Amino acid sequence: MLEEMHATYARLVERLLSARTAEGHWEGRLASSALSTATAVIAMFLADREAHAAAVQCGLEWLADTQREDGGWGDTGRSISNISTTSLVWAAFGIAGPRREVESRAEAWLERCAGSLEPGVLAEAITRRYGRDRTFSAPILSVLALAGKLGEDGWKRVIPLPFELAALPQRWFHRMGLPVVSYALPALISIGQMRHQRRPPVNPVARVVRNGARRRTLRLLERIQPDSGGFLEAIPLTGFVVMSLVAAGETGHPSVARGIEFLKRTRRADGSWAIDTNLATWVTTLAVNALEEDLEAAARPVIARWLLAQQGQEAHPYTLAAPGGWAWTDLSGGVPDADDTSGALLALKNLAGNSEEAREAAVRGCVWLADLQNRDGGIPTFCKGWSKQPFDRGSPDLTAHTILAWSAWREALPEPLRSRIAAARERGLHYLEGAQKADGSWAPLWFGNQFCTNDENPVYGTSRVLLGLAGRDIAMVKRGIEWLAAAQNTDGGWGGAKGIDSSIEETAVALQACAAHLQLVGQETITRACRWLVETTSGGVRTPATPIGFYFARLWYYEDLYPVIFATTALRAVLRGGGVSSPRQ
Description:
This protein has helices at 2-18, 34-48, 53-65, 83-96, 100-114, 119-130, 134-146, 173-176, 185-198, 204-224, 235-247, 254-266, 280-291, 299-309, 338-352, 356-372, 396-409, 417-435, 458-468, 475-486, 504-516, 523-536, 561-577; strands at residues 32-33, 273-274, 549-551, 555-557. By secondary structure, the protein is mainly alpha-helical.
């Protein structure tokens, strides 16, 4: 078994090293998305149906070809059908190119899912999926209204967004209780204006206020659009902004032309679009931290320079994130966030931990994370206390990742920052203790499993927290390990929870967590997991990706590099730390 593990690990390392770009870092490849393709097709059709006829037609062909047997669409080709994506694709055919057979099958699926195609019932089902967060329910309902799917008075069913609030000083946003999360300011402005134009408020005061705020908020939208033209580098968000501006009578607004150019540039050869341009910074830091000493010496300074160049140098235009953080991508539409900043700090420690430039960047990054910490000790994604929506609250996986990054740089930090970080770590530990569920698990924010209750992924969340708590002999670690070991499937792998089909990604991250707490885990648990990884990957040759990634607004994705990176990291941890019972087993 040990020989097979070494051989598997060697193949995975070789594959990971060969996956680099010509510039020396990793870019990865995200799954094509039916939801992205639908929004892009609608935006291009509404902006100029003649100029973009070929792209629209090709996108519709791809959507028709990828309709699932049940009549719906999932976010990826490996995702189960869901009401959000199916509604948007249904609307895309209704707006850009009716196909009766395809639409009839979609309607049958939606009727089964929502209970009826009656506009009120369908609108309620979509709103219920997202609860108080209107970041995504408002865009979906807007598209359905544009397609005429919500009846003659469809715009009445679209939730109005208070876009006029964007005219106020941005530093007030976290006090306003906005119905959208911090990253969604472009959607608030554009979709809010479309709804206002299509169905102005009855209240004359509100009507006057919103009319008066239109120009100012449109100027803000133009100002915060990144150089790439893609808001957050996200195809759905950019598509929603473009179609909303056109539907609001703002076809000539500069954000429309720039957004269209972004959509044209990110379109794939088969006519589809991914959920985002790339996760280059994120997959690069994961790959560096997976390879550690197996990364060639000559490559280290090249990647380090590239990574240092990605650190934010200015306040972000619409989250107002301070300089010092990292986004998930090297492109201009990225937004600094806690997970990518923690990953970058760990990668820099690995790549150039002794250099003065890396140390100075690490100081800025550690301060950035400390400034982000919420009052309860949890680390949110983008903004401290912006709202009560999920991405602006603390989460266990982000908090544990931050603790790991702080710990890696602890000795290199100057006083009094070292003391401040020590106190922040203790608050983070207290938060994790309170966030642990009664059964010993933790739920993550940015990863899920479509077959688990509430789409959660306690295996991933628990594993990430346990990795952040490596070396700590405390009660919550023991409870977490007990839960994780009990969640192992009979085949030796892990899914999102006990009994969920095992995947390479979930098995690998759980195995890595077990290897980090070897003294608390039975040897048989690790041996069975290693055997499953070796056999399932055919010795490191075959690594199909699973859609466990949660993008904004509960959209699923998979990334082709995740299983390669995660399996490499796990096997390295076991081979370095022991835990396999016999080389012949």
